[in-house]
Structures are given as structure tokens and as C-alpha cells.
Design a protein that fits this description.
This protein has 5 helices and 4 strands, in the order E-E-H-E-H-H-H-E-H. The chain has a 4-stranded parallel β-sheet, covered by helices on one side. The chain has one domain (about 5-119). Helix 3 crosses helix 5 (about 105-119). Strand 2, helix 1 and strand 3 form a beta-alpha-beta unit. With about 120 residues, it is α/β, with parallel strands linked by helices. Pfam families: DUF488-N3i. InterPro entries: YeaO-like. This is DUF488 domain-containing protein.
């Protein structure tokens, strides 16, 4: 069983969240850092600006986005952030936080799927 939860950053924090990690490149609009209650902001594990913008323009391209994002996650630029996230997961539950409105199709969901496959 995965100890990773995915949650919108606008939802209230809960004791069972464990370590709360923001996985967006940009700070979410309309929420203060105090209200966000995050433990870590891992910008480097978020999709590249180009990929994020392409997916935002064509949200129906979910499969293509997941594939391209998985490729980015295997790259050198994200290795330190991925290692940091894996270290947190060894210590306990982690909640991946995102700002997107779509709760089914967003980078945090894709990242959780990737982590579940690549531990």
C-alpha cells in the first residue's frame, strides 16, 4: 500500500497528511504560505514550464502528458528532488500538494503514479 496521498493545496491540512510537499513550479494563487501548511516545496520535481503549458492548453492529452512527465522524471534535472521525495517516503506518509482545479488529471496524480511504479 502506498503511503502517498494527493490533495489540492486549498484543502485543509489533516494530522494524517504526514509530510506535506508542494509539487508545483508556481506558488498557488490566493493562498498564503502560513495557510498552505507545507513542509517542503519541491519545484524541481514539477513538470517543465513547456510541458505544463502544453498540458494546460490540451488537457485531453493526459496520456501524452504522463508519458512526457515520466521521461522528465527520469532525467538528471529531477534526480535530487526525486531522491529527497523517496527519503521522505521511507520516513512516513507524504501528501503531494497541487493547485490545479482538476482532481483526476494533474501533475501530482501523475507523480504519484510514477513513484508507485519506480519507488
Amino acid at each position: 500500500m502506498s503511503n502517498i496521498t494527493v490533495k489540492r493545496i486549498y484543502a485543509s491540512s489533516e494530522p494524517g497528511d504526514g509530510t506535506r510537499v508542494l509539487v508545483d513550479r508556481l506558488w498557488p494563487r490566493g493562498i498564503s504560505k502560513a495557510k498552505a501548511n507545507i513542509d517542503l516545496w519541491l519545484k524541481d520535481i514539477s513538470p517543465s514550464d513547456d510541458l505544463r503549458k502544453r498540458f494546460h492548453a490540451k488537457p485531453e492529452s493526459w496520456d501524452a502528458f504522463r508519458s512526457a512527465y515520466a521521461e522528465e522524471l527520469q532525467g538528471e534535472a529531477t534526480q535530487a528532488a526525486a531522491a529527497e521525495l523517496r527519503a521522505l517516503l521511507r520516513k512516513g506518509p507524504v501528501t503531494l500538494l497541487y493547485a490545479a482545479k482538476d482532481e483526476r488529471y494533474n501533475n501530482a496524480v501523475a507523480l504519484k503514479e510514477w513513484l508507485d511504479r519506480h519507488g
